[in-house]
What we know:
two-stranded parallel ribbon, 47% helix
Amino acid sequence: MELGGSVAVVTGGASGIGRGTALELARRGARAVALADLHDERLAETAAALEALGAAALPVHCDVASDADVERLRDEVLGAFGQVDVVMNNAGVALLGPPDTLSMEEWNWILQINLYGVIRGVRAFVPHLRHQGRGWVVNTASVAGLYAYAWDTIPYITAKFGVAGLTEALALYLRPLGVGVSLLCPGLVSSNMADTARIGGVDDPSVWLQGMPLSEPVPPDVPGRLVCDAIEQERFLVLTHPESTRERVARRGEDPDAFVTEQIERLPTPPNLP
């Protein structure tokens, strides 16, 4: 797919992976990029950076946990530019804590953003892409959507496994109809995601948190470049840490029982909370 002259929409587009991808889309000739985010100051800064690269920018205050907000985002983009070619459902948050003591409100918070936010983006934009018979959908999951790497991030892993399954099945549905699909599964990325992260279900968070058993983080321009490469080269899976991720996914596929046992032995023993 050619990115030159395209119109793109990126949720969570004001910072981190979303910003990195939006700017790379502009560098590759996208004529317009719509940015959806809740942080108005960052939206304005990223919109200015896009315009400096020669792309039109449409910053939209949008909560992906809201049906009305996502539908309004679609209407504003189509009203401004008349078409959409690339949709990146990227907005996400982190929630840590014991899955058996987190409240349902906490579970609902992360699932409404990380999983249902992607579903809302699909419902809002895919009919347009399908009817025009071309375009591309990128959904941001995580290595957490390919294998369970820890026990302290179970809500996040749950949501990202849902995104990975949704996106793989979406490829089966849309690619025969002319619409491409990519799944972004980054490892650690240097971003401001910690600003909105929450921990629940424990009185002392330090008792629950463990070190991240993942490779060193990459800057957010790396996944941005990789996503644009995947669209242009029509590839499904996008990895920021391909060697370690593929090796672990292969081991999991080869012998799931042995892989889970390995993970249990490798990780510290969880606290048995009251």
